[in-house]
Fold:
Amino acid sequence: MDYSVYQKSFLSAILAGDRNRGSAIITELSDRGCTVEDIYEKVIRDSLYKVGDLWESGQISVASEHLASAIVESVLNEQYSRIIFQIKTNKTVVAASVENEVHQIGIKMVSDIFEMSGFNVHYLGANNPLDDLVNFIDTVKPNILAVSVSINYHLNSLEKLIETIRDKYPNLIIITGGQGLRDNNKEIVKKYPNIMYIKDLYALEEFLKKSRAS
Ligand code: B12
Structure:
């Protein structure tokens, strides 16, 4: 399946502010049996990365970028009802972006993949103050904490989070991801025991498969 035509149409729809067209493209792909991972990565994520490039090179305004990401969030929320699993495992994940981080679409996609694996998902979205996150973990006692960081200068928030949570919950599995950890930045998490960097939704699916098998 060649996704590039769909990706281009989706990009043009979200830049034009055409929510209905964006939604129709994703529904069509889903009806054709394309996997959620492929739709999210090859159509939606690639489109947003292109939005970022256009914004960085001054070809679109901040307003267009906001519009595009708002449409994506709305389309993801709409698709959610199609991917829900009736059969649940008894496992729980808390999915959150670090303190001050405004980007939340990547971690929403991650939440959806967990949802499809039958997890009980608590998606907290962007900008989670560390104390609140710790209190939340105290309450729901998750099996996994999934954390996202998009901006390089939020890596210190990530490290503070890891140190605090590791101290309090030495056995809690922590997985991390996001563009803030690309390239050499992902080395940061290697300093800590039992913490993983997971690049994308395909790698997340592999991780979940291995966890199911063990
Ligand atoms: C939309 C957007 C915004 C929106 C966010 C809206 C929202 N509700 O999320 C708004 C307009 C608010 C915004 C603000 C800013 N943004 Co912005 N934004 C983007 C844009 C265009 C798309 C982001 C996105 O959703 N991508 C798609 C998702 C699906 O991709 P992803 O996050 O990488 O997630 C994937 C993987 O990384 C992985 N993943 C992510 N998290 C996790 C977690 C786990 C556990 C796992 C397993 C996997 C995983 O899974 C996902 C699927 O593969 C990007 C461009 C880009 N290249 O992404 C810039 C971008 C991220 N923004 C950028 C910047 C600089 C900013 C601002 C600082 C701009 C400014 N000057 O004000 C502010 C941030 C202020 C702050 N306090 O944080 C830079 C970041 C550069 C950097 N790495 O430091 C980018 C890359 C643009 C650029 N080309 O320069 N932004």
